[in-house]
């Protein structure tokens, strides 16, 4: 099927499609890690999370931001896909090989608890040339993105449940991750070649690959810095005191749930990026209307997740990971506020990306990453997992401030007053939940507070408002 004749689906259809696939896959992963946390205990779970966090950073370094950049190019010129796929794959391979060698070297310093686990996890890095979901994104064929995600993480979850028992070598978990990545690589290759009919054009691929590097490295560095903000708390606290991997377990358990919830944020902007790019090409007035409408809608679910997470944290953490993870409650109550922060700042970041200002997006992400690492080193030594959680939230606020200021200078101004009702309602619901806990109990008060928030949110939206949003 010629790519320029594909049906381009609406934002709502794309979001619902990705929502179904991504939420299902993320639930599968969360259940798998909850199982690992209970079966292996905090110590081995911390070892696995530290190795996985390190792997994810290396994978992002190898991917070099080519996903978002390539999607933007294909959105405007679908016929470029045949040339971009081999160039991006070749560049990722060139970056992946030395990245894997770095992981092999790191494994020697990892310690006896995690000996060899980084070597196995690192094989995921060598598969990054096959991560071609960005092609489907640019063509607005989100059903293939959703299906691939479900296949990869479903494979991982099934293997974990089948193979892991008390005392299992943590390298088995890493092998399950690699198996999921292999399944995704085979799926992506099949869809590209057999379904979409894209035939790789290798003419000038090497020269084109390095041209891509020059054009996309800002975006790649930005993606790396952005994920460093999320992952460095676990990495920093793990390397500060390698003899206490359970500290990694506390912050990793909290961050894992928040990242699962952050899927809503990522899906939203994954789909919104082509719209932002199109509106910016139309004119700044059209972009401004889109962003302001988006802020007025999206902050309601964002603040709802923050309020609900804060109030239900004691029940949620112990229910998911077990009673041994009660020390993850406070870190989670801090980190959950990254949801409204990143949902708001995402409008700034993705506007910069859509406008071709990857350099400014990188500056914002780099500022946040540096803030996380510095504060995590300081607060991790004095306050443990809650300290590095606070470092992460502070970095999110820094990112929002820097990205917002850059957007105002480079693109234009927007009104953020539409976010105020959601923020005020969120604060009021938390006060009700905290105060009510003394009268009717913690769980009942939290339920009442969230129900009141939902009623206020529903009262502000009718069918026409939702359709316009």
Q: Could you name the key traits of this structure?
A:
0% strand, 16 helices, mainly alpha
Can you give a write-up of this model?
The chain is mainly α and 469 residues long. It has 2 domains: 1-203, no CATH class; 218-469, no CATH class. Helices cover 82% and strands 0% of the residues. The chain is built from 16 helices and no strands. It has helices at residues 11-63, 66-76, 81-108, 117-121, 133-138, 142-163, 171-195, 205-240, 246-282, 284-321, 329-335, 338-354, 358-410, 420-440, 442-459, 463-468. Helix 9 packs parallel to helix 11 (329-335).
Task: Summarize the topology.
Elements: H1 11-63, H2 66-76, H3 81-108, H4 117-121, H5 133-138, H6 142-163, H7 171-195, H8 205-240, H9 246-282, H10 284-321, H11 329-335, H12 338-354, H13 358-410, H14 420-440, H15 442-459, H16 463-468
Helix pairs in contact: 1-3, 1-6, 1-8, 1-9, 3-8, 6-7, 8-9, 8-13, 9-10, 9-11, 9-12, 9-13, 10-11, 10-12, 10-14, 10-15, 11-13, 12-13, 14-15
């Amino acid at each position: 099927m010629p790519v320029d004749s594909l049906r381009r689906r609406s934002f709502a259809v794309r979001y619902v499609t990705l929502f179904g696939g991504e939420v299902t896959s993320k639930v599968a992963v969360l259940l798998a890690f909850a199982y690992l946390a209970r079966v292996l205990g905090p110590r081995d779970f911390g070892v696995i999370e530290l190795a996985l966090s390190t792997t994810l950073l290396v994978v992002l370094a190898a991917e070099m931001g080519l996903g978002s950049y390539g999607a933007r190019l294909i959105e405007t010129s679908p016929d470029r896909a045949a040339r971009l796929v081999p160039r991006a794959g070749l560049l990722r391979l060139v970056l992946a090989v030395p990245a894997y060698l770095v992981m092999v070297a790191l494994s020697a310093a990892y310690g006896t608890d995690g000996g060899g686990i980084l070597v196995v996890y690192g094989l995921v890095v060598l598969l990054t040339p096959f991560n071609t979901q960005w092609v489907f994104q640019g063509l607005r064929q989100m059903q293939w993105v959703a299906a691939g995600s479900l296949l990869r993480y479903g494979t991982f979850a099934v293997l974990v449940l089948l193979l892991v028992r008390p005392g299992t070598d943590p390298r088995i978990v890493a092998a399950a991750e690699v198996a999921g990545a292999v399944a995704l690589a085979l799926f992506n290759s099949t869809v590209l070649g057999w379904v979409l009919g894209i035939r790789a054009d290798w003419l000038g691929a090497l020269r084109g690959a390095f041209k891509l590097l020059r054009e996309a490295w800002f975006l790649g560095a930005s993606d790396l810095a952005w994920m460093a903000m999320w992952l460095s708390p676990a990495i920093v606290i793990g390397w500060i005191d390698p003899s206490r991997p359970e500290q990694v377990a506390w912050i990793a358990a909290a961050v894992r749930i928040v990242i699962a919830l952050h899927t809503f944020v990522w899906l939203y902007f994954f789909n919104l990026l082509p719209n932002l790019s199109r509106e910016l090409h139309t004119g700044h007035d059209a972009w401004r209307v889109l962003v302001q409408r988006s802020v007025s809608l999206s902050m309601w679910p964002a603040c709802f997740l923050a309020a609900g997470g804060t109030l239900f944290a004691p029940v949620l953490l112990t229910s998911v990971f077990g009673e041994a993870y009660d020390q993850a409650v406070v870190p989670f109550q801090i980190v959950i506020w990254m949801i409204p922060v990143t949902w708001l700042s995402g409008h700034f970041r993705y506007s910069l990306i859509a406008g071709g200002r990857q350099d400014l997006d990188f500056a914002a992400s780099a500022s946040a990453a540096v803030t996380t690492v510095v504060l995590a080193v300081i607060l991790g030594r004095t306050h443990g997992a809650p300290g590095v959680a606070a470092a992460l939230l502070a970095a999110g606020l820094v990112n929002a401030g820097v990205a917002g200021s850059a957007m105002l200078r480079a693109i234009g101004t927007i009104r953020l007053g539409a976010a105020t009702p959601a923020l005020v309602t969120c604060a009021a619901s938390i006060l009700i939940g905290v105060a009510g806990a003394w009268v009717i109990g913690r769980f009942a008060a939290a339920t009442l507070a969230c129900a009141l928030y939902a009623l206020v949110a529903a009262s502000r939206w009718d069918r026409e408002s939702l359709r316009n949003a």
